[in-house]
Predict the structure of Murein lipoprotein.
Amino acid sequence: MKMTQLVFGTIILSSTLLAGCSNRADIERLSSDVQMLNSKVDQISGEMSTVRSEVQDLKRDTAHQKQRLNNKAHSYRK
């Protein structure tokens, strides 16, 4: 993911420089924007890790509850 961010930032900066209509302020603004986007991507990545963990916990709990219900249903059939 970091490589994608680096490539994205490099493309933006180089295209701005090649356009010939940029100045120092534009480059600094774009650099700031790239840094902001990188931090947001990092934040979302962390949140996704948390969500994945919670989903795994819920799957495990669901399987456990399903097994308990199956055991109860089986004991009533006897």
Q: What stands out?
A: Residues 2-77 form one domain. The helical segments are 2-19, 24-77. The first helix runs from residue 2 to 19.
